[in-house]
């Protein structure tokens, strides 16, 4: 694993590395790495991935760009059960990711029946209605501590539909299922995204 990645993640024992094909590209290559006594070894990949249709860089609520940087991976969700050591939530149509910049719940998960939510549902993402792309997903902890309204929300590593995303990282379902089984919160996993 390149020195840059290991230097950027001194406490991480697992790294999901996403490198866009070129500046502004919506395609990337994903590999996973784990720290051993002998150094870093590759655990998965290379896996073809899609990123935001505007590429990788500074994310915001008004762009379809995947945030560049190193972010913790602390939880996961999906419409299907998963084998993973990460905290995992099986979602329904009452599960949302809030993208309403005026809401105190911005860039968090919230459970409420459609039509009853305390935020603008049109500015939120109903996780249970997203279809097969959210069969499994890992939350990318970008803009979560602290949360900055408008800096971007709802960034996930999820199942691909074969197209660029609105800012998430998307890979084939079988590869994501294998990565979910591999991720271990005790090893402080992170995702490193670069373009």
From TrEMBL:
Coiled coil: none annotated. InterPro entries: LD_TPept_cat_dom (IPR005490). The active site is at 158 (proton donor/acceptor), 168 (nucleophile). Pfam families: YkuD. It comes from the Bacteria. Pathway: Cell wall biogenesis; peptidoglycan biosynthesis. The keyword Cell wall biogenesis/degradation applies. Transmembrane segments: none annotated. The keyword Cell wall biogenesis/degradation applies. Keywords: Cell shape, Cell wall biogenesis/degradation, Peptidoglycan synthesis. Residues 19-193 form the L,D-TPase catalytic domain. This is L,D-transpeptidase family protein. It comes from Amycolatopsis melonis.
